[in-house]
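Friendly challenge for the regulars: who can give me the structure tokens for this chain first? No prize, just bragging rights.
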Amino acid sequence: MSRDFKVQKRLILSTLCVVLLGDLVLGIVSWRFNRELASPQTVLAQARLREKTLDAAVQRALKIRKSYPEVAKQCDDFEKALQPVSEKYSSILTDLGVLAKKAGLETEGKTFRETDLKERGLAEVYVEMTVAGNYASIVQFINELQRTENFYVLEELSLASEAKTSGNGLKLTLHLKTYFRS
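First reply, four minutes later:
Bragging rights claimed.
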């Protein structure tokens, strides 16, 4: 029995020594790692980087504040340049029809949906229309749409081959938004 106790005692002491040695090694590694990260040079470099970042943000904010009146005036001028709401549908139909005809496209299925943006004094008109023709005509139409005096936001295009035309016919469905003063 006393021999079993000595073996058991040695086994417990050996296990305890291994655990303490592992704890000591992990403590040294942790101490070195924290010492390297928290050196005064590292802390100073991090503080300088943070200062540069904050200074750049402050400079950008000051630049925005300085240019705000000019940007606000440009926005007001843009809104004043929009057509009055009384001309909305006829203006859109005429404009898109002329552009399509100029590009040599056939138009079909125009639908409109209006949203009143009272807080901005604007009316938003969503337009969906389909045009058909060859690739060059479609590209010309999109280029002319960008250059028109009226403001259009081209939100989505769906392009598919048109079965009715010969070889190079394409059908393009446009999803547009435009705005009017109310």
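Helices lie at 2-37, 40-81, 88-103, 135-147. The mean pLDDT is 84. Your move, everyone else.
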